[in-house]
Amino acid sequence: MTAPNTMTCAQLLRLIGTADVPIILDVCIDEDFAEDQRLIPTSLRHPYDLVQDLVPSLSARKVVVVCQKGKKLSQGAMALLRSHGVDAEILEGGIAAWRDAGGPLIPAANVPERGALWVTRHRPKVDRIACPWLVRRFIDPEARFLFVAPSEVLPVAEKYSAIPFDVAGAELGHSETTCSFDAMLKHFSLTLPALIGMANVIRAADGTPEAKAPQAAGLLAISLGLSRMFKDDLKQLDAAMPLYDALYRWARDAQNETHDWVAHGGTQ
């Protein structure tokens, strides 16, 4: 039986990549972190003895506290946060249990500063919406995105210390057979089957040569429709986030499900 105020690895894994994921607060000490410098997706590292500093920003959110083995550090930080009214739990077994369960881990060296700026070409369609979705759902929920003229992406990145993507000359960009979404999956070592399934659809919808997926036509049609509905690229991104949330849930839970009128209660 799971202890009170505890979340299992399986429970957290079901929330990773969704809009319902809690704030994941990593309080591992530096010595433990040095043994495996990877983070659970969207984790925020913070010293265990300074967690009270975060109370104002955590008061309205669910929090899962993580340490190496789910013992004294996370137990104490969780209890301290709860004493301030924060809805906090610990991850049962800590990072060690998450690793043993095959949970995704991202190289910390590749994770930018919280709330970092990202920049790409304006008037996004598929890849330039899919990539921000991936960043916000798996890397940094507080990431901010700039959409600028194609010729200005790299200069803006330099002047504003932003991370460029989906533009010629950027590390996180296209190759002959992949799109920028693929480049981000590789960069952040994200190999979840659901993300691989999404990538197949995104690659085809984005027009990558020889990429094929029957779902791509629908994704492209909806993406083009959204681009006509919104003149403001940021409003378009906000409107499209649920679209990619749904694509992720399809790729994770429903790839083998079919639908027809007769099977769902109709008659011939």
Architecture blueprint of SSEs:
Layout: E1 6-7, H1 9-15, E2 23-26, H2 30-35, E3 38-39, E4 44-45, H3 55-58, E5 62-66, H4 72-83, E6 87-91, H5 94-100, E7 106-107, E8 117-121, H6 127-139, E9 144-148, H7 153-160, E10 163-164, H8 180-187, H9 193-205, H10 216-229, H11 233-254
Question: What do these coordinates show?
Answer:
This protein is an alpha/beta fold and 268 residues long. 43% of the residues lie in helices and 13% in strands. The chain has helices at 9-15, 30-35, 55-58, 72-83, 94-100, 127-139, 153-160, 180-187, 193-205, 216-229, 233-254; strands spanning 6-7, 23-26, 38-39, 44-45, 62-66, 87-91, 106-107, 117-121, 144-148, 163-164. The chain has a five-stranded parallel sheet with strand order 1-6-5-2-4. Helix 6 (127-139) packs across helix 11 (233-254) and helix 9 packs across helix 10 (216-229). The protein is globular. The N and C termini lie far apart (49 Å). The mean pLDDT is 95.
